[in-house]
Amino acid sequence: MLATLPACPTQAYIGGHWCDAEDGRRFDVTNPATGAVIASVADCGVTETRAAIAAAKAAQAGWAALPAGPRGAILRRWRDLMVERADELALILTRENGKPLTEARGEILYGASYLEWFAEEAKRIYGEIIPSASANNRILVTKQPVGVCAAITPWNFPNAMLMRKAAAALAAGCTMVAKPAAETPLSALIAAQLGIEAGVPAGVFNIVTSTRAAEVGGELTASPDVRKITFTGSTAVGRLLLQQSAATVKKASMELGGNAPFIVFDDADLDAAIEGAMASKFRNAGQTCVCANRMFVQSGIMPEFARRLAARVAALKVGDGEMAGCEVGPLINEAGFAKTERLVAEAREAGARVLAGGARHAAGELFYQPTVIEGVTPEMSVAQEEIFGPVAPLIGFKTEAEVIALANDTIYGLAAYLFTRDLGRAWRVGEALEYGMVGINEGIMSSAAAPFGGVKQSGFGREGSRQGLEDYLDTKYMLMGGLSA
């Protein structure tokens, strides 16, 4: 185990300067695996948020005027620094988030992939010329950066969620003010440090660390200088941010809650389905936005699938993320642990049976045993709420039509998964599922090249892909007249 935490900034980063909160407040960052305090960070408020917005506004015109090539070169250098220091960044991430080091390092490389992708896409912001009804004029369409953007990012992927927002915004020519989650601010601060080394100009990328989420969020949404807000988090908070942003009619992209169905048909490759379930459900201890939340298994294979999944889950190695071979770390805090514990208890009371796990793990206060429950019905709370813990509820079904209806019976529509060898079924079910993303015979589908996002109350807008760049651009129409001789 590496004992020493790499050097990491603990102040906010505003306008090219590291700074403390004006009132001197700070907050502790703790390791969820041990409860130990690993850093004390500046606890900013309205004053610092306003300063960050002002800095971003001052830097906006100069950054937008920089040609796409030089902008992309800076992002590429930023990416290279992240890759070179991936082990260091992974240790910081594991200490504040709890996920296993191997997962943390994977996240760093995943975050870096967005910098690489958008560094290249910056050169492909195309306009168009549209034929006009008049010989005297031409219709020109151009794309311009939205302007100052605010990003509010979650604790479950503190590097990747920030990088996929910042990379797209900066590639498009926007500046940004980011507020990372209070549980995991260090990953954002070390990313900002590497951005400085890569040549990101002062004011282009700002970090406001805070436990005062309502104050900071309220200032970001109220400011007319902030032209776009991007948020990853709960649907409840997303609704509030949208309400607050309405007064200034901001552009917005929201990646909100999920209730992902994971569907296994009788004809599926059972080995592939088990591997997909393990990858989708238990990565980051089940604390992912696209985590399999409801596992629908067709009746013909339910006994075999349940037996094999329970055996794999029971063998998972749980512990401190820095422990050799660790596969599942702790939950992020007491609230997350209590919710997981409650959902399992309520399922048991309603008649479900625990096949593996089902209790606190001996590794520590925030560790919950990886769990499999069979006999779950759709009305149980464990099938209705986003679990955000290492619990796999198994729900039986008989027909294709039945499972499509069950899968779509939710306000959420972020990610869905299905396993089948039938090509026709793959198309039918994939198109019928009311979700922004569908993994077919795959348990992990995130990629910088693909449009990530949901429908219904899981949000709108896309991150990654060329669509992710479009979310930070405004379309301008110009009519050029006086062309006749």
From TrEMBL:
Coiled coil: none annotated. Gene3D superfamilies: Aldehyde Dehydrogenase, Chain A, domain 1, Aldehyde Dehydrogenase, Chain A, domain 2. GO terms for biological process: gamma-aminobutyric acid catabolic process. The keyword Oxidoreductase applies. The keyword Oxidoreductase applies. GO terms for molecular function: succinate-semialdehyde dehydrogenase (NAD+) activity. PROSITE patterns: ALDEHYDE_DEHYDR_CYS, ALDEHYDE_DEHYDR_GLU. Belongs to the aldehyde dehydrogenase family. This is Succinate-semialdehyde dehydrogenase / glutarate-semialdehyde dehydrogenase. It comes from Maricaulis salignorans.
